[in-house]
User: Fold these one by one.
Assistant:
Number 1:
Amino acid sequence: MNAEIIAVGSEMLTPDKIDTNSLYLTQELNTLGIEVVAKCIVGDDRVRLTDAIRAAWAHSELVILTGGLGPTEDDVTRDAAAAALAVAMHEDAEAWQAVLDRFKKFGRTPTENNRRQAFILDGADRLPNPNGTAPGQWFQRDGRVLVMLPGPPRELKPMVPAEIVPRLTALLPPLVIRTRWYRVSLIGESDLDALIAPIYTKYTNPATTILAAAGDIDIHLRARCATAEEAETLLAEVGDAIAQVIGDKIYSTNGDALEQVIGKLLIARGQSVAVAESITGGMLGQLITSVPGSSAYFRGGFLTYTNEMKESLLGVPTETLKSMSAVSEDAAKAMAAGARERSGADYALSTTGYADADQAGLVYVGLATPSGVHSRKLQLTGDRHRVRSMTCVNALDWLRRALA
Amino acid sequence: MNAEIIAVGSEMLTPDKIDTNSLYLTQELNTLGIEVVAKCIVGDDRVRLTDAIRAAWAHSELVILTGGLGPTEDDVTRDAAAAALAVAMHEDAEAWQAVLDRFKKFGRTPTENNRRQAFILDGADRLPNPNGTAPGQWFQRDGRVLVMLPGPPRELKPMVPAEIVPRLTALLPPLVIRTRWYRVSLIGESDLDALIAPIYTKYTNPATTILAAAGDIDIHLRARCATAEEAETLLAEVGDAIAQVIGDKIYSTNGDALEQVIGKLLIARGQSVAVAESITGGMLGQLITSVPGSSAYFRGGFLTYTNEMKESLLGVPTETLKSMSAVSEDAAKAMAAGARERSGADYALSTTGYADADQAGLVYVGLATPSGVHSRKLQLTGDRHRVRSMTCVNALDWLRRALA
């Protein structure tokens, strides 16, 4: 079953407002194995909303509307739904009684326009709303469902487990969902896709999703089957083939970030790491220490932005800085070696390079290990932030491989 | 002019993903006086997307599509737009050359599927994308406009001021827009709103927008008038009143971030800064060095995560660490003093505290200046990331006030 969610209300179309209801509903629907294939926010415009509902109803088995169920002229959800489905409405006696009861409880009198809130689509179930005046509605026809829910999260949220989940569960075939998650570093999205598309495009089950961020790609596989065994077999069939072509560029299969993977490897080996940063200016240390418990293996670091600091803190030879410049293989090595020695850590990473100006993107990364000191030249692209981020990904991935 | 925004990509239909592009675009469109009347997220489904584009095109003068311009079969935006508008596409020679150039720059070879990225709607302008392979497109017909932009924010964002705003401005009636921008630190959003709502709610012109992030609030005022003089008068009337009640919590009036403000102050005074970080593990250094040109005033730093490092690198007395613990006023002072002395910088900031576990949120910040060493105790709330971020904001804001 596929779902679309339509949130109604002009107030959600500002630069700083987020439709949190749809995130919550997506979570609940995914848990049931229902995929959300589109979501919209439509202002208080009956014509536009009617069109949006009609399109959703044509494409998806489940349409959930949130908001726009208040008592004013602005509240257009009921009317638009009735128009889109070509269904009449009636005043529901129980719904009106619930409105009266609620007003009585607060010692107030409903106005005539509150009657609008008691209007229910012909053939729909009224869904009680314990925290507000507007009831929800559940309308089912030809195997399709349209749901209306109130907009305020404190009214909507309790209604989902109470009214929506049980009704949906009754409609769904019993299915088991199993997932795999590969995290991959240092490969371009199109290169990766060229590698794995020949595999995953052959299957709709498991479904494959690829998410790319700077230096990092997540591959999600989701199998939905009648039994767990069947799902695991499908995941193995597709997942193992994908894992084989990507190889050791996969750094995690459980969602761990690169810095978490490194932390676990260091803990397992009882070893520690330090950093010496020039171009990244603290970003590498900040990433490593973003992991709770990192004090167990992170000894510290040296932000040596000036040549004097590289000399005095890390013992990088004046000669190296003069003859080779601070952005060189030798400087990166000397920084890593100095950081390892002066921190007492087992491993040390160093970074030096140009983040902007003429030679932007020229970076050297150093790695000092118990068995030697190495450096690598990188030629990165993008703005200052990207060059610095990619430097960190390269450094961390190098350490991961050294530890693995 | 009314606008609709359609974001394309199944990855944005998960329970934890937010379409930040649409928030940014809404901000930019509102600044031009264009209202966003609907926005949608549609998965990678050509048929559904074609329908969504057709509906938006029927209802609004401006339709902006983001994402789905990549090289894979999954990237359906171009095809769907062509189908919805009943327009053919052609391979654009310049667009293909741009793809080739970009790959060449990185020493890579495009795959055959990259050709898809050079397809342009007949009659559309190609919009250059300096940070990615996929160009944008601008298609205009019968007074309506359809725009396609790449999904990654670092590609999309620079294209909006460069390509979209000027083209839209040319279509709009001539109105003069003048803005003010206050950036405010270390005050809660509701406290701030209680202070300034009595002022700004009296006016619809200038329009006031408040954007809140952790430790940071932006207040935008936008006046739209027939003349610049009129607009400036309105801005002064509302803006000056707002500035007066907020006082020196305003750290910037030109959009500069806190670390940029500090950089300019240090450059103006010919002075320098260093850091000694424990709880923030490099975040403070990373923030300071995120500013291009920061090598002019950032000398470097010490990430002293262990007590041994605090002793050996910064000379924090063993006594202090034993009797007072590493999270104490004395430790923060000794760290700042040690960092200042050993880096030769004029100022040094230090951070020490607990990011999680029992005493999470207890933080000391130190500041060493040419005239003395000070420390402050903070009691912060939130998760590890927020505690570390707020520690940085507090430290930087303290330095700003010391320099101002």
Note: The two ends of chain A are 42 Å apart (CA to CA).
Number 2:
Amino acid sequence: MNMFLKNCWYVAAWDHEILGDTLLSRTLLGQPVLFYRKEDGTVVAMDNKCCHRHAPLHMGRKEGDCVRCMYHGAKYDATGACVEVPGQERIPPKLRQRVYPTAQRKRWVWIWMGDPALADDTLIPDTFSLAHPDWRWKPSYLHYECNYLLISDNLLDFSHLSYVHEKTFGGSPNIAEARPEVQRMARGVRVSRPVRGTVPAPYHQRLGSFEGKVDRWFRYDFHVPGILLLDAGVKSTATPDDDMSGALQFHSCQAITPETEKSTHYFFMQAHNFRLDDAVVTESIDQSQKRAFIEDKQILEAQQQMIDNSPESPMVAMAADAGLMQYRRLLSELIDLESKAPAVIPLIPVTP
Amino acid sequence: MNMFLKNCWYVAAWDHEILGDTLLSRTLLGQPVLFYRKEDGTVVAMDNKCCHRHAPLHMGRKEGDCVRCMYHGAKYDATGACVEVPGQERIPPKLRQRVYPTAQRKRWVWIWMGDPALADDTLIPDTFSLAHPDWRWKPSYLHYECNYLLISDNLLDFSHLSYVHEKTFGGSPNIAEARPEVQRMARGVRVSRPVRGTVPAPYHQRLGSFEGKVDRWFRYDFHVPGILLLDAGVKSTATPDDDMSGALQFHSCQAITPETEKSTHYFFMQAHNFRLDDAVVTESIDQSQKRAFIEDKQILEAQQQMIDNSPESPMVAMAADAGLMQYRRLLSELIDLESKAPAVIPLIPVTP
Amino acid sequence: MNMFLKNCWYVAAWDHEILGDTLLSRTLLGQPVLFYRKEDGTVVAMDNKCCHRHAPLHMGRKEGDCVRCMYHGAKYDATGACVEVPGQERIPPKLRQRVYPTAQRKRWVWIWMGDPALADDTLIPDTFSLAHPDWRWKPSYLHYECNYLLISDNLLDFSHLSYVHEKTFGGSPNIAEARPEVQRMARGVRVSRPVRGTVPAPYHQRLGSFEGKVDRWFRYDFHVPGILLLDAGVKSTATPDDDMSGALQFHSCQAITPETEKSTHYFFMQAHNFRLDDAVVTESIDQSQKRAFIEDKQILEAQQQMIDNSPESPMVAMAADAGLMQYRRLLSELIDLESKAPAVIPLIPVTP
């Protein structure tokens, strides 16, 4: 079975990673890809390996909308066609780099690694908080030495907040004890986990100065191949449900993109819509999230090592695995479908 | 063929490595194992990989005699049974960790990695000097990047003292030239190598201030799977054989435990029964031994690399290999027997 | 197919690497080899792995023209025969190390890794500038983490000077644009590439203070298995072709010797025959060459990683590949011949 779904949009980079003459080298789905920006601002994604002698193009030079390999001087345009070979007039048509469809949406650069004819940019999920005047945030990135599905698993079961993030996002076993509702969507799952009458997480307490118990909510769509759009918050149990005046509301956009079978890119941010002009709050939320994700990173990388140590050994399910198991099943069905008939993959837009 | 004998006792740790809330992670025979101590002081050895999603339990939390996985909160008791799953009432019986028999004897924690029904603690060799008022010593540990049999080989042929330890334990080619007597035991070999009228080793000279030639003796039992109990000493040739007044006598307990196919744990100490109240002597003996063992480590790790470079290449025997070849044959017979009929392994106690 | 040609001379070391009691350990063609010098100055090359228990002999001790393994004391003479086993009178004839023919020619130590009966030292190319009063140079060495053929490729297509060495040896695209002439020889290829009316390379400008355009020439024999003898130079276009008074002339001897399939030894120097008594010039040429070769090393190691990432992916040829393709074909024919009938390899001396 293929490890990766190809006919879907992956997040490849933050927009600010590709500026000016940058030749960005990034491996995605095991494939070394070169990224650069054309004069008109659109992003070119091209196989990073020069088809001549396999030197990496990111060690080359950007010349206008073209890139020149700095080993023997072959020059490729933005369509991947070789347009110059030093000392040679006729250019063999085989001297051509594969290029990938890209799209830029609100600070994220997306790439389509499958059949270009199927690349439909209406399938890109709406990451509204990445560019919205009511929300503030900072961009973040982490590199994980583990398979991307271990990160999906992690995101699809927030019971881990009570344990992995006991001292950051968690605070009590109550999150783990609250049963989540999981709904399947055409290209993802929706998970809701309300937690009522719990103690505030250390992280929330610092921001909200709550007195007494709080209600918390988590509701997110997790889209194929690994895009999480999270609506979360916390408010005092003492205020009515529809009174958001003292609440802390968050919206988080997170994207996991496989680098190789055993390593993953993680792009993320957590936006807040309160105290918008207080840079300290924005900074603190970013740092808290990063600190918590490093807790995830440590346990997931340790988990990967345990799995590598005896890959055949089975896992035993618990009730909390419902979300991740639905998602793994969905993804595996899509990968299976794709390998059988790449042309007829059900490119059904996400149910709103 | 299996690489390791399973139905036997291995040294897993020094007792002081598992104290209080310690969750010790140690890989033995390729298996990641978690060690912790119960309230009553006995040691629990459990697969370190949580059977739920394979997170390592040593990153978890000790709760009384139980351990909780700090990924999703599964809690296991000292028998390996899962006794709590957050947010779930019925616990699937498959949520269970494998536990291993352990035994503590005089500062060493032993583990039985094979069939628990066969674990017979009368088979543990008598390491008397590890807890005896007439002997002083310090505990030591080294990690070797080589297969455990290369260390057995090394210990079973003391001719290497003349070369590897020329400037520490050796001092002259006389040890290599003295032919050892090797006797086979039910679960090991006994090696005796008297060396008469030689120059004192640099190490002995510093401790004993000998004038003129000395006699040295080495006599040790080497037990399956890698326990060496050594009785050694040095005295002036000028004094009668039964006069031990000016002699330096040593007793050493050493245990080699495979970590993986290519790495090994080495637990050791060297006890002396003279100048008991002189801490400098104890310290100096410990340091001399460690310095010499690092000489072994360097040559054995280099040997492992040479073997890895061309694993098929045969070795050519010399007379000095008699001990190690007897031992390798014995071990290989036991491993062979075990793979054929694990229930009838000849668990004959060591001949005294 | 074999990766390496065996019946040929490889450069193993600079002469100054094997002095006095040096026991030099160097892996060649995947084989760990020990080098040391006999009292009469000739170099012994012997398998570095002691045939007894596979300890490396370079951790041993040189005793006259012999080497003693410092694990258990086996002593070998310069023919590889074991001449002493401590504590043992009869020495088994199987205790014998393989030795390899060597030859020293003008500062380089050569080794023949194939059938010793075929070792014919008239096949060693004439590296005259390595010992000639009219030429000055400094010896250099680099270790490359790539297959040796990637280095051959690099040396057989000087069009890379315009790109890889743009700021050192290159200076303009003119070198890449000049079409080289490639002639096949019995055991190599000859490449000539005259470049007329170009701008001087930054490196030449510093040495020669040219005014206006220059002519450059490169002419080299590239011998199996990887010996490059280069005659190169630069002179003002304003002076007649046969007037060498203001020219800078260079002669470079370079040797690439596989260490393993993925790593290579590179021995090289670049001699000059002008301003012989100016040590600054010699130093500066050596440093310029090393700086440029590090540019090669970076791109070749990156190329190796790209190839490893997808080894099956084909390369697409351009005209500039003519030299390297001829050479790869020749080498592959020789390796093929050798594997079929090692005795009849065409040991035809190089056409002058």
Note: Chain C touches chain B through 26 residues (CB under 8 Å).
